[in-house]
Design a protein that fits this description.
This protein is α+β, with helices and mostly antiparallel strands and 305 residues long. The chain has eight helices and eleven strands. The longest helix is centred in the middle third of the chain and has 29 residues. Bound molecules: adenosine-5'-triphosphate and magnesium ion.
């Protein structure tokens, strides 16, 4: 099975441009502006037409900055982070000559031989795909199977972000990047950071505790954890690295391994691990939070106690 038989443009696009030079090179060049092309019928050099039309699109109510116009173009601005399982790129999607602009984080899951499956099989318990050909392919880790798995992580993350984003829009109790679209193994998300400079928001781990309002950040964290518990899911990899801080507000990211705590026999353990990971950071910074009390409450809210 050739790659593009199973998954569309997202994977084909991957080989097109490489940004394995210096990480935030585009920041140093200070260039968020496109280069002009000589042929006016083509998008600018390095640009592509927006892939919005052929994608699985994010939930309603759709934020007004999401660019849905046919004439929108995507410009790759550089790489934000290479990870073990995915690479995250900064993409500008804008409508030329209109000032309509958006910045997106494109998270591309690795589907090939170079992907490390650090999310172990425990996460996949209770999750199934309907078609048996796909199940077999995934079980024997053929290259089609590997791509299937990568696509499943992307789809699982897209789904989890959509659900949480909607709850956040209704309650204001949890923040995640708006999931703009999904194609195959590529997710495009709201870029959390400065849309002028292209600088990403810092991770919680990098936030200086002498200037931050730790009590407020902890309150936000417990609110977010409550939302997850009441939705009967665990983040599954919550940590000060998978939490960004934008203008004093916590934004949870990196949710492909979200765990259904009712379906998964280790559901309560996943909640406990999430709580301990983040509580430990606050305790180290000098805020005496009680992880056990919080865990009790969350297990109750999830219906596990
Ligand atoms: N929506 C976003 N806006 C801004 N930056 C983002 C966004 N999503 C991801 N990033 C950046 O990319 C990094 C990696 O993203 P993420 O944690 O989702 O992927 P990952 O492959 O699991 O990476 P890792 O293995 O480092 O955890 C984040 O720590 C963050 O710096
Ligand atoms: Mg991460």
């Amino acid at each position: 099975m050739r790659e593009h038989d199973a998954f569309g443009p997202a994977t084909m696009r991957r080989g097109r441009r490489k940004f394995d030079d210096d990480d935030a090179d585009f920041l140093k060049r200070g260039r968020l502006e496109p280069r002009l092309h000589e042929d006016p019928d083509l998008p600018d050099i390095g640009d592509n037409w927006s892939t919005w039309d052929g994608s699985l699109q994010g939930p309603d109510p759709r934020p007004d900055w999401v660019r849905t116009e046919h004439g929108a173009v995507d410009t790759e601005l550089g790489i934000l982070k290479t990870g073990k399982e995915a690479d995250v790129f900064l993409v500008r999607r804008h409508v030329p000559d209109t000032g309509k602009n958006s910045l997106l984080a494109a998270k591309r899951y690795r589907d090939g031989e170079h992907r490390l499956f650090h999310r172990d099989a425990g996460y996949l318990e209770g999750r199934r795909v309907r078609r048996s050909r796909e199940n077999r392919a995934m079980a024997n880790r053929s290259s089609f199977g590997k791509q299937m798995i990568a696509g499943q992580w992307a789809a699982a993350e897209f789904d989890a972000l959509g659900r949480l984003w909607q709850i956040g829009a209704e309650t204001g109790l949890v923040r995640v990047p708006y999931p703009v679209q999904l194609i195959g193994t590529e997710l495009m998300l709201e870029f959390i950071g400065d849309w002028e400079t292209g600088e990403a928001a810092p991770r919680l781990a990098q936030v200086r505790s002498d200037t931050a309002d730790l009590a407020d950040l902890w309150q936000q964290m417990t609110d977010a954890l409550s939302v997850l518990a009441r939705a009967q899911v665990a983040h599954g990899d919550l940590s000060p690295y998978n939490t960004l801080v934008q203008d004093g507000k916590l934004v949870l990211i990196d949710l492909p391994q979200v765990v259904d705590v009712i379906g998964n026999p280790q559901g309560a353990d996943f909640i406990a691990r999430d709580v301990r990971n983040v509580a430990a950071w606050f305790v180290q910074r000098g805020l005496p939070v009680n992880a056990d009390d919080l865990l009790e409450r969350l297990l109750y809210e999830a219906g596990l106690k």
